[in-house]
Give the backbone structure.
Amino acid sequence: MHNYLKKSRKDKLLRVYKNNMKKSVIFPGQGAQRPTMGKDYYDEFQIAREIYDKASEAIQEDIKKICFEEDDRLNLTEYTQPCILTTEIAMLEVIKKEFGFNPEIYAGHSLGEYTALTAAGVMPFESAVKIVKKRGSLMQSAVPEGKGTMAALIADNIPIDIVKNSCDSNSITMANINSKSQIVISGGVEETKKTCEELEKKIEGLGVIYLNVSAPFHSSLMRGIEDEFKSVLNGFEEVFNKENSVHVLSNFTGTYHLPDTLIENLVRQISGSVKWLDNMSEIMNASNEIYEIGPNKPLGKFFKTVGGEVSSIINLRGARSTFEKKE
């Protein structure tokens, strides 16, 4: 009888724990783009078609053409960013309507943070599309071509303090702290190369992959555009619902946004580190269901390194498979 009561109490506590946990949705950022992304949603659902049309009207560009056809602009930062945001919101809205999906915690990686803010009702969709197009344009123009680069450092349990010290001494930045096994560094070409060479000597088994990017994103070289981007955000501030930002994780701080610091932290995200490892910790502490929605699925792999399980949805077939299993 005693063991039965102990088990009964344990089961009750477990039910209470699970009931208090929340659903989270996460959105990948730049680099997740691919030709034809979102077309299956567009072809089948009116709500998706409306979203693509609104985005096209907002920035006076044919977003459908860039996303669905072979179009070189898909890989130009100025266009990549609004295309990814539009696709992710179209996917989300269909999934919400068709499967009753109702997340309570929102996060996104770099550009994906803007999708998260839009999904959480902080930014109106059309405003967000305009903002990220300008963000992409500014980021693209911040550094002359060939003057900056990014490199992914890959190893088991990378010592963050060692990487940070090396980056600081060479005036470059830890751009993305993605997981326990991947950190991306960013800065000037020579400084980044020197840092990689130093770290290869200090960290056993370290692999280095130089990324094919058009600019050193999330580095100090981006600081020159921060004032102009702040003016862009200030221009939309009156339509923001800042109170909803408390449901969205900040890349810059690693924890939840606060209404009073929303704009400042979005500005600082441009040249600061994306603290994705901290974001993942916050999500796992609050969620027992995590869904990645986007044209590709890099974030689920990062969660695996910290023992997290993510349902990644990259197309309509995957959405149906994921949610029909849960019914």
